[in-house]
Amino acid sequence: MVLAENVHKSFGRLEVLRGIDLEVRRGEVMCVVGPSGSGKSTFLRCINHLEKINGGRLWVNGRLMGYRQHGGRLYELRDSQVAAQRRDIGMVFQAFNLFPHMSVLGNVVEAPVRVKREPRAAARETAMELLDKVGLADKAASFPRQLSGGQQQRVAIARALAMRPELMLFDEPTSALDPELVGEVLDVMKDLAREGMTMVVVTHEMGFAREVGDSLVFMDGGVVVESGAPKRVLTDPQHERTRAFLSKVL
Ligand code: ADP
Ligand code: MG
């Protein structure tokens, strides 16, 4: 579902990703951990081409993100074509980014109606099913400011799912939450994983990584230092940098 080959990304002279090689198979959950500034968010943003990579290749579901390959050469896709590629990728951020002036239902209905031109009635029906799935059917008419952080993040997940993504990217989805609200968001993500959604999750929740992750990647300084089965990486890290990081977060 995701294949990264030698992905490089710089901002000016700052080299943030220095050759990332990763693979996520369909239905797998990959958790990504690493110190602040190691390039985790940048890597996620490269996956859905919110950032243009400077080198290497990134495929999502067999499609080269942002480019068309022809006769061994790469041609940049037009914005509309990139937008079409991105439509199959859902993203959930640390800050929930809900539309504050729209109801919960409105937030979930918006993209399918605007972007996919789904009939509003059908989109509402799907949205209600998704809100039910994240345990918020009774909040459909509420506005984001009336919800807790955990509830808002669950709405954000429902909103991403409304586009029927093949891949979900999570960037520290529980980092902005009060501790007692973390569990309800992780539970929704666990359900998603159980249903077979392919997920890349940047998180500091090592319990989640161990329980739900098929793989755990430790990034530092723009490279993958170590990756493998979560249990193995957590209990028997092979690199000093991994050990040092884990000793701080565990
Ligand atoms: P992480 O998510 O692991 O904390 P980031 O991917 O956010 O790391 O950032 C990695 C590095 O890239 C940091 O040094 C950050 O300041 C820098 N960076 C991220 N985005 C930009 C940008 N748009 N312009 C310039 N530098 C950036
Ligand atoms: Mg980040």
From TrEMBL:
Subcellular location: Cell membrane
Molecular functions per Gene Ontology: ATP binding
Occurrences of domain ABC transporter (ranges): 2-246
Annotated membrane topology: Peripheral membrane protein
Matching Gene3D superfamilies: P-loop containing nucleotide triphosphate hydrolases
UniProt xrefs under SUPFAM superfamilies: P-loop containing nucleoside triphosphate hydrolases
Record keywords: Amino-acid transport, ATP-binding, Cell membrane, Membrane, Nucleotide-binding, Transport
Main localization of the protein described in the UniProt heading: membrane
Family, as annotated: Belongs to the ABC transporter superfamily.
Protein name (record): Amino acid ABC transporter ATP-binding protein
Organism phylogeny: Bacteria, Bacillati, Actinomycetota, Actinomycetes, Streptosporangiales
